[in-house]
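cron nightly-structures :: item 1 of 1
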Amino acid sequence: MRDLDVLCLGEALVDLLPDRRGALEDCGRFEACPGGAPANVATGLARLGVRTGFRGVVGDDPFGRMLARRLAAEGIEVSLRLARERPTGMWFVALDAAGERTFFSPNARFSADKLVAPADADPAAIGRARVLHVGTSAHVLPEGRAALRAAVEAARRLGVDVSFDPNVRAHLWDDLAPLRALCQDVLPRCAVAKLSEEEIALCTGEADPARAAARLVAMGVGIACVTLGPRGALVRRGADEAHVPAEPVAVVDTTGAGDGFVAGLLAALSRGAAPLAARSFAEVVAAVRFANRVAGRVCTRAGAVAGLPRAGEISV
C-alpha cells in the first residue's frame, strides 16, 4: 500500500548557526538547528502537506535524539537507526555579507550518517512510497554506496519514482571517481534529478547548464533541473526546455535553498496519482516556479528549515 508520498533516505545532521556574519573564529555563539539535505527535504515536504517518511542513521547521543524528536514533530514518519559507535554529524555554518555560506565540520568523515548500509534500504519501506528521494553525502563509504544502489534498484523494481539531488560535498571524498560512478549509476534511473550549476560538470561532463540538462535527459532522467542561484532554474523534459526565473528576495542565509527547491518541486509534482514524469511540460514549469518560490523563502531566514513554508503560505 502506498501510504507515503515521498520517502527520503540519507543524512540528518546538526547545523550550528553563528550569531553574526563573518569568519567562524570571530563568532561568539552558535545555535543548533536540524540539517542534512534529505532531512531538510523531508521537513519541507511535510510542511507542504505531503505524506513523508525519513530513514537514516544518527548518533545515539543528545543531538541524534534531538533530530529524531524535531523530525517527528514536523509530522514525518521517522525511522532512525541510533549508532553508538559514531556521533551525530555537526556542521558549523559561516555566512558572508551577502548571506552566502561556507561549512566546517569537525566530524563529517566519521559521523553516524556515513553508516547507512544496504539493510537501511529496506524494500518494504521503499515500496510504501510513490517517490524515493536520495542524495550522496551519506553514501561516502563502500557500504553506503551499496545502500544507495540497492535503494534505487528496489525503487525501480517496485515501480517507485526516484528523485535525486547529489548535493556534492567534494571534501568528503578522497577520490571523486567513486562519487562520479555513483552518480552515473543513479541518474539513468531517475524520474527527477536536481543539480546545482556547480555540480553539473562532475555529474555530466558539461559545464553549460543547457547542455548539462540535455545530457541528463539523454542519460535517462525524466525531468532534469539545473538550479542557477538567484537566476532561477533551467528545466528540461525530453525536447522541451525552459528557464524559470527566480523572484528577488532579501537574502539572509542561502543554507538549505536547494533543499527547499527540491521540496517545492516534489510537492507540486506529486499532486495526484500520475508518475512524476507523466506531468505535462506546463505543469513541470509551474512546479519549478513554485520550487523557486520555496527556495527564495528559505533564503529569507537563518538556517535550512526556519524559512520552509507551510501549505497555503506560497501559491503554486
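cron nightly-structures :: done
The two ends are 28 Å apart (CA to CA).
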